[in-house]
Queue: 2 jobs
Job 1
Amino acid sequence: MHDLILKGGRVIDPSQKHDGILDVAFTDGKVSGFGKDLKGAKETRDVSGCIVTPGLIDMHTHVYWGGTSLGIDADEFCRMSGVTTSVDTGSAGPGNWPGFRKHVIEHSQARILAYLHVSHAGIYGFDSRVMVGESVDMRMMNPIACAEVADANRDLIVGIKVRVGLHASGEQGTAPLNIALQVAEEVGMPLMCHIDHPPPSYEEVLEMLRPGDVLTHAFRPFPNSPATAQGTVKPAVLAARKRGVLFDIGHGKGSFAFKTTRAMLANGFLPDTISSDVHQLCINGPAFDQVTTMSKFLCLGVSLYEVVKASTVNAGMMLKRPEYGSLKVGALGDATILTVREGKFDYVDVTGEHLIGNQKIVSEGVVLKGKWWHPKRSTRFPKVNS
C-alpha cells in the first residue's frame, strides 16, 4: 500500500531518461513506484494534463530569514515556486551557522542544504541601503573555524562558498578564493565561487577552480562575461568545463543577461544548473523565482527536458547527492507538478533588457517527503479513488 500516487501525468525524469505518461508513487517519504497503472494507495491525485518532475532543486538561494537582510522565507518560497530543496549559498559563515541551523533549517518543512561561507559572518552587509562586501576585509576570513563547522555539519553543508569581485571583495582579487580553496581541500568538499565585476577576471577565477567546483553567476553580463564581443565562448571557459568545473546560473539582482545567454546557447554551451539566486533584493524582480528563471531558458530555445534536467538531476550530481533530483524507486519522495502556459509573457534580465516569450512554466503543486504539499492558491488535483 503506497501513501500517495500521482496518476496520469507527463513524467519528465532525466535521471532515468524518461519523458512520457506514467504514475509515480510515494511511501514513507521515498519514491515507491514508477510505472503505468499503479494501484493501492491511501491517497491518489489525478495530475493528467500536467508535468511531473523530480522535486526542483534551486542551487542558489538565500534563505537565512531573520539572520541576514537578504534572507527570504524558505517554506513560503518553495511552496509557491515548486522548489523542494533550497541550497543556501553562503548566507551564513562559521560565526552564525548555529543560528541558521537551529532557527531556520531545523524548523523548515522544505529541505535546506547549504554552502558555508569562508567569511566569519557570511553575507552580512547587503540590503537596499547598505552594501559592504564581506570579502573586502581579509580579517573576516575564518578558515580554521570554517573547516571545523563544515566538518561537524556534513549532513547539511555541501561545500564552501566564497565571493570575489569588485562588489564582494574590493581590491583583494583572488586572495579570498585562495583561502576558501584551502578550506575546501582540508574538508574534502567542493567550492562554489561567486564572481562579479573585476578584479579578479573571469579567467583568473576559472584557472583556480578544481573539477567539481562551481562557478555561479556563470552567464553574467559584461564585464566578466563568459562570451566574447564576437559571440564566441572564451577559451578559458571551454578549458574549465573540459577539466570538470561546473557552471551555475545564479540569476539574482545582477548576474544574468539575455545577451550573454544567447551567445552561450548559440555555441551549444548550456549551464550545468539553472538557479534563481533568490533573495530580498530580487524576489520581486528581476529573478522572481526558480520557475521564472527556468522559463527564460525555455523561451530562449532550450528544450523543456534540458531545463528540467538542469533543475533536478544535474543539481543532485553537483551536490554529490544522487538521491536528490530523481524519481527512481528509493529516491527522496519529492516531486513538482508543472504546467507550461502559452501566451505572451514579459521577461526581464538584470541589464533591463526585456524578452517577450510565448511560454511560461508554472508550479501547480508539490510533493514533499512523500506528502502532498500543494500551494495554498491551488484548487486543482482533488483526491480520487485508487
Job 2
Amino acid sequence: MTETIVAYLRAHAEQLDVDMAEALNIPIAELRDQVARLAASGDVICCRVTRFIEGRKIEGVSCRLSCDPPTPARGRKPGVKKEDDSETGLF
C-alpha cells in the first residue's frame, strides 16, 4: 500500500490527502494511517492546509515526497542585490 502512495506522489508531486484517496480508491482513514507511517519514517512530508476553492473552505493534509522540494518562486529573491553599474566602471 505504501509503495502505491509513494508512486502516486512521485508522479503527481504535492497532493491533498482527499485527492489521493479518491484517485487511489482507498478509504480516507486508511490513507491517513499509511501517510502517517510514511511521515514517521521520513519518506513523506505532510502539513495541515486550508484552501478556499470556489468560496468553500477545504481543510486537509498536504503531502509530498521528502526528497522532492517545491519549485522556487519566479522573480527576484529577497536578499539578492542588483549590481550597481557605477561600481563596475561602465559609465
